Structure prediction request, 258 residues.
Amino acid sequence: MRTVSVKNVVIGAGRPKILVPIPSKTAAEALATAQRLDKEDALDVIEFRVDYLDIALDKARLARLTLDVANAAPTKPILVTFRTKAEGGATAIDEASYAELYAAILQDGRADLIDVELMRDEGVVRRLVDAAHRAGVPVVMSNHDFAATAPTDELVARMRRMQELGADILKIATMPLDAGDVLKLLSATWVMSSQYTDRPLITMAMAGKGVISRLSGELFGSAATFGMVGQASAPGQLELQDLRAALELISHSLGQNR
Prediction:
């Protein structure tokens, strides 16, 4: 299994790593949150959710702000994410603007990783993956369904497509309608991690029904999970300290029984 190393964090080895989002609306709020999160020993990676910002579509100002956020949180890796409205984000954006925004961040800003959505135009996805890799930035390729959970084989197919497109980390998030949907997500995670991929996965079923999927990654093959400090960016995220304690307990138990 490949790992992805960013600063002092190795994704794909040991217990699942914890990402905590910055879902701020203004630059000042984002910088203050970054400074606060940088002091949180329990988290591993900060996700800067730039789609929440009031300047989300201003690529030049946004690129400069990613530099400032990185400087405000110098010890934590930063995943820069523009989650589109179509996949549960805060801001709608067209294909050309999406590509230009990430290109500006890669050229003039700072990101330790970037999130690229699988369901964007394939040409845009390929160009962004290539640009990120030329800049030495790993790509988290993602797909989010806030309405339902696809069958297990479809979830696996989507992750395999991410791999074909050159993603370094494969991410799937679904909305479970019942416990059976959670099992679909966990089964897809296990099948993908054990049979089809050599790189880290991040998978989760959202909302209350899906919380178990945020905790059980080390057993099923998910290398990271998302928690929150204050404001969540998706339903079902747990408070950071509770999440870290649960992951440590599970990791310890698995280690004893290997």
Observations:
- Residues 4-256 form a domain with the TIM Barrel fold (CATH 3.20.20.70).
- The chain has one domain: 4-256.
- The two ends are 18 Å apart (CA to CA).
